[in-house]
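Technical note accompanying the year-one report. For the benefit of new consortium partners, we illustrate the data format agreed upon in the data management plan: each record pairs a sequence with a structure-token string. No post-processing was applied to the example shown here.
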Amino acid sequence: MLLPYYQNNLIEAGCDEAGRGCLAGPVFAAAVILPTNFYHPLLNDSKQIKEKDRFLLRYEIEKHAIAFAVAQVSHQEIDEINILNASFLAMHKALDILSITPQFIIIDGNRFKPYQTIPHQCIVKGDGKYFSIAAASILAKTYRDDYMQQLHQQYPVYNWQKNKGYPTALHRKIVLENGFSPYHRRTFRVSY
């Protein structure tokens, strides 16, 4: 059972990203402020939900959220600053365009670069613990999937409508046979 909030004294936004482990395409992030009484029986970590249900949840989240925003950082910038920093940047961009400035941020994961002077809490597997982080994971994932579907129209050989840029065995095989597309990431540095 997911929890409605981490704390209830301040306006709280949940943040998550999608596409961190991909070979191609941008990383997307979302920030979501939900009403404290928000509930949906299907809402969970986006990886635990069927694709059709993710899009149904996106509609429900966008309809009921107090505020939400989705942002992306390109594959070129990922190569320049590394995927960890790009994930933080995408979350900051999403927070920048929220129509309401949160007073507290909860983030999926164990690391985050502080945003302005707003207090935050990192929560490992937070997308399976708190509604607002789960909602952010749904928005980031569905918007990124839509984007990769569009890129698939330009480069159908890479099968992005199915693998969404993730390093499946077939995707890796296609890259070995056809080389990189202009949307493939070129660096895969580990960040500590």
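Partners are asked to follow this layout when depositing records. The mean pLDDT is 94.
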